[in-house]
Amino acid sequence: MKFAEKAQQLQPSLTLVISAKARDLQQRGKDVCSLSTGEPDFPTPSFICRAAEEAMKAGHTRYGSAAGEPCLQEAIANKLHQDNKLTYSPDEIMVSNGAKQALYTLFQVLLDPGDEVIIPAPYWLSYPPMVHLAGGRSVIVPTRQDRNHQLGAAALAAAITPRTRLLVLNSPTNPTGTVYPEQALAELASVLRQHPHVAVVSDEIYEYILYGQSRHVSFGVVAPDLAERTFVVNGFSKSWAMTGWRLGYLAGPQPVLHKAVALQSQSTSNVCSFVQYGGLAALRGSRECVHTMVAAFARRRQVVLQALGSMQHVHGLAPQGAFYAFLNIAATNLSSVVFCERLLAEAGVAIVPGAAFGDDRAVRLSFATDAITLKRGLKRLQEFLAGL
Ligand SMILES: Cc1ncc(COP(=O)(O)O)c(C=O)c1O
């Protein structure tokens, strides 16, 4: 069977492949510590589950509006206003099957063949394949660990060409944990002002998962004058431990949003109706559950930082947000894939090769896992490194 050209390079997401491999080994009786997945290990808070159950009982089991349940669109607009100081009307919001589908849809409606999308590396691994599937071309701009993995204004300016259509920003960043300060965003906005053909999408899925003094600033706050070409992507997966619910959203100027909703209506119709009422409860409810989970991530982050201090051959920055440690392994002289394969086979620890995120000299360790598994995994990593 011949594939479409755009499908020929398509591979499953490496993070999901590694998690599946670790699960498979576990099922075959091997003792594996999985530090690979990008999802909270907590159950979804019960008040959210109850709201979805009640919605189902109340008959929210039919096709709904392609843009989302109006009450959820409104709650998202309120949230963006209160938490992010962004002004969007409910009809500038589209509810999607996770932040992932919001990004996918946006790329589909914005990109023509050959259009360029600037992606700072290390990046979340799904951006380039999604750009490719939309016919676009990813322009990967490396960032430096000694500059806290932030895209700088000069590097952005140098990457822009007449074909550039979009810049992808992600703060807090997966996989590095970088949080862009207001000043850094303002400098990027200054560059974009000189290039009116370039739009920006700000992926803010980890916005509440912050450590120490880090503060999340939405790109739109530093550049309200760029609102006509700014998009916000966010979702419920990480903050409310709702990865399996598949609930996210896209906010942006109406003409593009209308096209995105039209695409959604022709592809998935709408996000599962009763799931949206779970999201509504999350937004309307107390944030206590979010704070509790973030406090647990913060304790585990300390465990990781302490363990890293006594490890040979690896170093990394303390993550300011999200729940990953991105470790430079250049001193091991191993490629990131070989490093991870050996770590899994020889020490029973699953982590993700940096090659998947555009940096083959690094690996990503997730601390969104229970403290016991985390401590055992770190001890094994320490012993593995000592034996290299
Ligand atoms: C940076 C980033 N954006 C988007 C997503 C997708 O999230 P969702 O589960 O809402 O599709 C992830 C999930 O890993 C992510 O890390």
Automatic annotation (TrEMBL):
Domain Aminotransferase class I/classII large: start-end pairs: 31-381
BP term (GO), one: amino acid metabolic process
UniProt KW Transferase keyword: yes
Cofactor: pyridoxal 5'-phosphate
GO terms for MF: pyridoxal phosphate binding; transaminase activity
Domain of life of the native organism: Bacteria
EC number(s) stated in the UniProt entry for this protein: 2.6.1.-
UniProt keyword terms in alphabetical order: Aminotransferase, Pyridoxal phosphate, Transferase
UniProt similarity note: Belongs to the class-I pyridoxal-phosphate-dependent aminotransferase family.
Protein's name according to its UniProt entry: Aminotransferase
Organism whose genome encodes this protein: Candidatus Synechococcus spongiarum SP3
